[in-house]
Specification:
heterodimer; A: alpha+beta; Phosphorylase Kinase, domain 1; Transferase(Phosphotransferase), domain 1; 2 domains; five-stranded antiparallel sheet; three-stranded antiparallel sheet; 5 helices; about 40% helix; globular; B: alpha/beta; Nucleotidyltransferase, domain 5; five-stranded mixed sheet; binds adenosine-5'-diphosphate; binds magnesium ion
């Protein structure tokens, strides 16, 4: 059963030996040349699987990785909701999201698309998904971009909660937030938010 | 009810005349770009020298005189200050002399609106690709302004291609020369950077320019790979925005919308999502006066009050602060 067809991948529900899982398959894109298409899909599948495994070993909540093929990943099914789809007060989740992002960054993982649409909530616990645009990299700028993407996707108040817990968990938060301010000063991001969509 | 538009934000001086749905004239005079790039004061001088002639030939082509013009629009920004000033001053002088309303227009908004108008689109998603800009936009909830969903973190795709063309010593340092060089090229790996609906081009450019120094690598392969990589990045971000917004119309606009390859790629996305794809002919993609006239005409027909004392320029006029008129 298909549960999602995103811009990049289709996600199917499955069950292996009584364990609920999902299969995420990166779809061929006809607009780009085959070589680039194969390369992007293969590389993103690889990095996503690698980071799922790594994060798990660091004790960061992600779906358990079960199987990897060239363009497909099988992982544990999270029987929850996306943070972006939760109505009502999400403050407590934003606090946890800040802690989780700090943990990723402490381990030199930049997510690349860190928004509430890539965070799932199950049993009041958060799980981070969608690591296809992630990098294992010690880059202050890449980490600051994660915060920027989040900032644009949530309310100002929500961001205040998010960033104060991020500061508690991220070791290099001073440098990273300084970079964030720099990125915003570049001007492109002033007055910009995703609030009205 | 003919309306005149003056565009002078960058290297093109454009004068266009529109009457209802009819584009009567669209004159464009381009500052010759040398390898030194643009010197703002020289550019302003060039535009001032050409303004009178361009105006006369636009009026002649439309078989109109200034007395037949019922309103005038000019580009307020964004753009280069000295160049913008030429357009603003010319427009004000004409408005005072002929006692007609004058409207100041956002350059980027005009690029989008002409595509929306010609394709009869109601609520499209746009990929706006020009020299300094590369953005993905659509109406906000109230549909009175455009909202930026994604954009370049660093330079515009047009400037990226121009810079490469200059480094490769192509005769004309602009995107179409890169496209010509790219013909029959084959793909070599390049850095590819998309972050959600945003993207960056400098890493790609630096990489491609460095490759030019390597005599064993075919220049046309580099041009081909650069173009395919950059366009694929734009397409990926656009498709992500399309899925987020669920819009049913996709448009491309701005100078780089002249690229045949980029249009083909976007059309492919639109076909796959079974939505409409729209573009305009090249004279309306390049910087031009007709698009400015079109927006001025919309303001006039919406009864917007003109105030000549507010008619200044704003080099950093952001599109998401500019009002849209139906
Ligand atoms: N482990 C999972 N458990 C349950 N649902 C998932 C899981 N991973 C992804 N999904 C669902 O599939 C959707 C798309 O997955 P995602 O990895 O974010 O891919 P993309 O956004 O690139 O299409 C998510 O929004 C979520 O609804
Ligand atoms: Mg996702």
């Amino acid at each position: 059963m298909r549960i999602s067809n995103g811009a990049e991948a289709n996600v199917y529900r499955s069950n292996i030996l009584g364990i609920d899982c999902i299969v995420k398959v990166r779809q061929k894109k006809l607009y780009r040349i085959q070589f680039l298409d194969d390369q992007i899909r293969e590389q993103r599948t690889k990095i996503e699987a690698r980071i799922l495994a790594l994060s798990h070993s660091y004790g960061i909540n992600v779906p358990p990785l079960l199987l990897v093929s060239k363009y497909g990943i099988t992982m544990g099914f999270i029987n929850g909701k996306l943070l972006s789809e939760i109505d009502g007060n999400t403050n407590v989740y934003l606090k946890d999201a800040g802690i989780l992002l700090g943990m990723l960054h402490n381990n030199n993982i930049a997510h690349g698309d860190f928004t509430p649409a890539n965070i799932m909530v199950f049993n009041k616990e958060l799980f981070i998904i969608d690591f296809g645009l992630s990098e294992i990299i010690d880059s202050v700028e890449q980490k600051a971009l994660d915060i920027l993407l989040m900032k644009r996707s949530i309310s100002q108040k929500g961001f205040g909660i998010f960033i104060s817990s991020y500061k508690k968990s991220s070791k290099a938060h001073k440098l990273i937030i300084k970079k964030l301010n720099e990125l915003e000063m570049r001007g492109r991001y002033q007055q910009r938010s995703l609030q009205n969509i | 009810m003919a309306v005149l538009g003056i565009e002078s934000s960058a290297h093109t001086l454009g004068i266009g005349i529109i009457d209802g749905d009819r584009f009567l004239s669209n004159k464009r005079i381009m500052f010759p770009i040398t390898n030194n790039g643009i010197i703002p004061s020289e550019l302003a001088e060039f535009h001032s020298k050409n303004a009178a002639n361009a105006l006369k030939s636009a009026l002649d082509e439309s078989s109109l005189s200034m007395r037949d013009i019922s309103a005038i629009g000019y580009t307020k920004g964004p753009g280069l200050g000295p160049a913008l000033n030429v357009g603003a001053i010319s427009a004000k002088a004409l408005a005072l002399r002929y006692k007609i309303p004058i409207y100041s227009i956002n350059h980027a908004l005009a690029h989008l609106e002409i595509v929306r108008h010609i394709n009869n689109f109601d609520d499209p998603l746009f990929l706006y690709v020009s020299g300094g800009n590369s953005q993905i936009l659509g109406f906000n909830e109230k549909k009175d302004k455009y909202h930026i969903y994604g954009e370049t973190f660093d330079i515009g795709i047009g400037n990226m291609l121009d810079n490469f063309a200059r480094a490769a010593k192509l005769i004309h340092a602009w995107g179409s020369s890169v496209a010509t060089l790219a013909e029959n090229g084959s793909y070599i790996q390049m850095p590819y950077t998309v972050k959600g609906m945003d993207f960056t081009f400098t890493g790609l450019l630096t990489h491609a320019v460095k490759m030019l120094d390597n005599p064993t690598i075919n220049k046309s392969d580099i041009a081909y790979s650069l173009q395919e990589t950059a366009f694929s990045m734009l397409c990926e971000a656009t498709e992500r925005a399309l899925m987020l917004t669920k819009k049913k119309e996709l448009g491309i606009c701005g100078g780089v919308a002249q690229s045949v390859r980029l249009k083909a790629m976007l059309k492919c996305i639109a076909d796959e999502h079974k939505i409409k794809f729209g573009f305009v002919e090249n004279q309306f993609n390049a910087d031009n006066g007709a698009m400015i006239a079109l927006v001025a005409q919309k303001m006039l027909s919406n009864g917007v009050i003109s105030n000549i004392n507010d008619c200044n320029i704003n080099q950093r006029f952001r599109i998401d602060t500019a009002r849209v008129y139906k």
